[in-house]
Design goal:
By secondary structure, the chain is mostly helical. It has a single domain, classed as Four Helix Bundle (Hemerythrin (Met), subunit A), CATH 1.20.120. The protein is 54% helix and 4% strand. It has a two-stranded antiparallel ribbon with strand order 1-2. A hairpin with a 2-residue loop joins strand 1 and strand 2. Helix 1 runs antiparallel to helix 4 and helix 1 runs parallel beside helix 5. The radius of gyration is 17 Å and the shape is globular.
Length: 220
């Protein structure tokens, strides 16, 4: 696979890796946009998703595909508003990691995912979470999720947000879920935050969305 989607995933994972490798221990306990999650918690969550991707890309599936890069978000992706027990489990795992080991494992695994995706035909069918989709659609969902969590990660870190390529995939996905393009004067980052429920729409934004404002968030 050699595609804009894979290029966006490579950028998304590389940028998160750069942030992670720059963290001091105290940085890893700062809050994120995910309610109750620290930076360290979110990195562990992201690592789990990257490991899932590695398994999926190595798991050829029989067709037909029952999800694509847009419909994946319709009830397939689990909520990221965990209860107390789930959050306690995540915190226990996150606290058990040495930060250096967590960062190294994340970086190694993301590089493996990008390398394996690059050797996988875009139309190849893969299986994950009980569903089948094309490899290029899996890669798109991974880039979207990484970009959104990049925004979550930097809430209180003085680090850059996601770059244009991953954010463009977020915008495209949100527009498809919405059913029409969001106003073109909304920056990609703002629409990403609005469309995923990270921030509430302002008055003008709510009027621009009309009845669709009640459907937010379009993905979590």
């Amino acid at each position: 696979m050699s595609s804009p989607e894979l290029a966006a995933l490579r950028i998304a994972y590389s940028d998160i890796s750069t942030i992670a490798s720059s963290l001091e221990e105290e940085d890893s306990w700062l809050p994120t946009r995910c309610l109750g999650w620290t930076v360290r918690d979110l990195l562990v969550h992201l690592l789990g998703d990257v490991q899932r991707a590695l398994v999926a890309l190595a798991t050829p599936a029989a067709g037909p595909a029952d999800r694509d890069a847009v419909t994946w978000w319709s009830g397939t992706e689990p909520t990221e508003d965990p209860g107390f027990r789930e959050l306690r489990t995540l915190r226990t795992i996150a606290g058990a990691w040495e930060l250096e080991d967590l960062v190294r494992t994340f970086m190694e695994t993301t590089r493996a995912v990008v390398a394996l995706a690059g050797r996988t035909p875009p139309e190849a069918l893969v299986a994950t979470r009980g569903h089948v989709l094309q490899a290029v659609d899996l890669v798109t969902t991974l880039a979207v999720k990484a970009a959104v969590h990049h925004l979550d990660l930097v809430l209180e870190l003085r680090r850059p947000g996601p770059r244009t390529e991953p954010l463009a995939l977020v915008r495209c996905t949100l527009d498809s879920l919405l059913g029409h393009p969001a106003p073109t004067d909304w920056p990609d980052e703002r629409w990403a935050l609005l469309g995923t429920g990270r921030v509430p729409p302002g008055g003008g934004e709510r009027r621009a969305l009309g009845a669709a404002a009640a459907r937010l968030p379009l993905l979590c």
